[in-house]
Structure formats: structure tokens, C-alpha cells
Design brief:
The protein is of the alpha+beta class and 142 residues long. It has helices at residues 13-39, 89-99, 124-130, and strands at 43-45, 66-68, 77-82, 105-111, 118-121.
């Protein structure tokens, strides 16, 4: 009896990878709109989601997941967006810090699965740098 060679069906890993990439891209676009609406600026998802050369100074505007449309403006923050079921905050912080151009504050924005909650992780020194005192304290009764 001769055995037939049976072709294995293609795995769903490529579909899962595409879905995960699409989910991440969608979250980046959503965050760009949220930041844009809040601050009255136009932001967009970085082409290839920050996949440009990290060593080139010319690529500074393309690092991170969200960038400004207006080239006359400069972001003070370097935004890494994460929409994953399992939080890997230590890895995300390391990525944000390693990819962050000089002069910017690394920020990780992440979503809590199955909720409408988003969170921001920022170094304390960066928080002090970009959040003015007036947004922290005020006189009572004002």
C-alpha cells in the first residue's frame, strides 16, 4: 500500500499576524485622532509604524507610532502605542526609551483589553518637564 502525501493546510499564524498588525494600526490611528482633537493639531500614524532606521537623525520624525503632519511643529513626546491583551510594560518602556530621539520624552500609551480605558506611562522626569505646575496645583476656591 502506497501512502499519499497530504498537504497541510496553511496555518492561521499569518492571519493572526495580520489581524494583530491591523489592530495595532487601528489603535495608532485612533490615538492620533484623540491627540489631534484634544490639542488642535493634526497627527497621523507613522509610516510603517516607526519601522524606519533608528540610527539616522533624518528618521527622528518617523520614530514612534504617531507623528505630526505640520512640519513646522515639533512633538515634545515620543509616542509608542500598544493595544495588546497581555501587558509587557517593561518591554514597552525599554522600546520607547531606546527609540526616543534626543530632546523628547518617551511615552507609552496602552489600552486595557475589553474596556474603553487607555493609560499613559511616562518617566517622572518627563512628566515634570511637560506638565506645568498650574495643571498640578491651584489655590482653593478657584
Amino acid at each position: 500500500m502506497k501512502l499519499k502525501k497530504v498537504e497541510k493546510p496553511a496555518t492561521d499564524k499569518t492571519k493572526q499576524g495580520k489581524r494583530a498588525k491591523n489592530k495595532g494600526s487601528s489603535y495608532e490611528r485612533t490615538l492620533a485622532k484623540m491627540f489631534g482633537n484634544r490639542y488642535g493639531i493634526e497627527l497621523k500614524r507613522t509610516p510603517q509604524s516607526g519601522g524606519f532606521s533608528k540610527k539616522s537623525e533624518k528618521a527622528d520624525d518617523f520614530r514612534g507610532d504617531i507623528t505630526l503632519v505640520d512640519k513646522d511643529l515639533e512633538l515634545k513626546v515620543h509616542i509608542e502605542a500598544k493595544n495588546q491583551k497581555t501587558w509587557k510594560l517593561k518591554e514597552w518602556i525599554t522600546q520607547a526609551e531606546n527609540d526616543c530621539p534626543d530632546g523628547r520624552v518617551p511615552v507609552v500609551v496602552f489600552h486595557q483589553h475589553n474596556t474603553s480605558r487607555d493609560y499613559v506611562c511616562i518617566p517622572l522626569s518627563g512628566f515634570f518637564e511637560i506638565v506645568p505646575k498650574d495643571n498640578i496645583v491651584q489655590k482653593k476656591g478657584v
